[in-house]
Design a protein that fits this description.
The protein folds into 2 domains: 178 residues, Rossmann fold, CATH 3.40.50.720; 148 residues, N-(1-d-carboxylethyl)-l-norvaline Dehydrogenase, domain 2. β4, α4 and β5 form a beta-alpha-beta unit. 48% of the residues lie in helices and 12% in strands. The chain has an 8-stranded mixed beta sheet, with helices on both faces. It is an alpha/beta fold. It is globular.
């Protein structure tokens, strides 16, 4: 099969830190880059000052990046579009994009989150709002990727999931670089869940570190968090091995331990005794784990998946439960086997007989 070819240009919908970082990377790849910014003043800074001071201050942007605040201009003639907006506005943005999206375009979500009301992933939202009418190829890109490091050209690896392997290969070829290595996957649900769920556990890790519980405690909670993530992935039809990769374990480790993580910072401040309302009042950028804690809790109830750590984060954020009480309740649960009973028949955990 002949490889698919895409034009050497891309539209990036969203001029936050991650959207700007992807624009910088794409420009370095020689692509013609158009960025849509919600605020005209942000587009003006990018075009006139070659900087986005609101989200990546001090970083000089390539001259080939063009910013607009008109969706029609951003999407005109574009065959590859990256949607990089906060998860809670993805549906309204998809509706706003609808009149301008080119038929047969490739639309890749680079946003990580779950919709509150429906528990839909970002690609599911795009599919509901756009795909039947426009015949779009949809995908999601996710993995351990702090925006600032990508913008600086530091080595990063991510996963791109699409239902069409040839199209995934085409996007991979266009956007990959030695310092931005893209792996492909057909497991859209697993890749999206990894990127969304890890935000909740990054808050839990921050609370743990805010209490100064030590490295042992953090190292214990991360694989237990991964276990919860994998259970949800299986319940939604994903491959649990996807959660062992970049979009699951990789992103969890980065977001739960990295100093650039907004979700970890929220947890640290909660663990230090600050109130969530005070934390939110002084924050410019969105910590997706706050919203996702409610979405994940609703998803767990809907699919009847046991997610005790995610449940306690929800109670801290939305029911004013004391973080220390939540930690104690987690640590004093009944003792159990490490592996899910469904997997006890494999390997050395198999019951001996005779």
């Amino acid at each position: 099969m002949e490889p698919l070819n895409l034009p050497h240009r891309v539209a990036i919908i969203g001029a936050g830190s991650w959207g700007t970082a992807l624009a910088v990377h794409s420009a370095r790849q020689g692509l013609e880059v158009t960025v849509w910014a919600r605020k005209a003043e942000v587009a003006g800074h990018i075009n006139n000052d070659r900087e986005n001071p609101a989200f990546l201050p001090g970083l000089k942007l390539p001259a080939s990046i063009r910013a607009v605040s008109d969706l029609g201009q951003a999407l005109a003639g574009q065959k590859l579009v990256l949607a990089v907006v906060p998860s809670h506005v993805m549906r309204s943005m998809a509706a706003a994009m609808a009149p301008f999206v080119e038929r047969g375009a490739v639309l890749v979500s680079a946003s990580k989150g779950i919709e509150d009301e429906s528990s839909a992933t970002m690609v599911q939202i795009l599919e509901e709002e756009l795909r039947p009418k426009y015949g779009l190829e949809l995908g999601a890109i996710s993995g351990p990727s702090f925006a600032l490091e990508v913008a600086r050209g530091l080595p990063t690896a991510v996963t791109l999931a699409m239902r069409s392997r040839p199209m995934a290969k085409a996007v991979q070829s266009l956007l990959s670089a030695p310092v931005f290595r893209i792996y492909t996957s057909l497991d859209l649900v697993g890749v999206e869940l990894g990127g969304a769920l890890k935000n909740v556990y990054a808050i839990a890790a921050g609370i743990c570190d805010g209490f100064s519980l030590g490295l042992n405690a953090r190292a214990a909670m991360l694989p237990r968090a991964l276990g919860e993530m994998s259970r949800m992935a299986v319940a939604m039809g994903a491959n649990p091995l996807t959660l062992m990769g970049l979009s699951g374990m990789g992103d969890l480790i980065l977001t739960a331990t990295g100093d650039l993580s907004r979700n970890r910072k929220v947890g640290l401040r909660l663990g230090a005794g600050e109130k969530l309302s005070d934390i939110l009042a002084g924050s410019r950028e969105v910590a997706e784990g706050i919203r996702n804690a409610r979405s994940v809790r609703n998803m767990a109830l809907r699919h009847q998946v046991d997610m005790p750590m995610a449940r306690e984060v929800y109670r801290v954020l939305y029911e004013d439960k004391e973080p220390r009480r939540a930690m104690v309740d987690l640590l004093t649960r009944r003792l159990k086997d490490e592996l899910d009973p469904r997997y006890q028949s494999f390997g050395p955990n198999r019951e001996m007989s005779g």
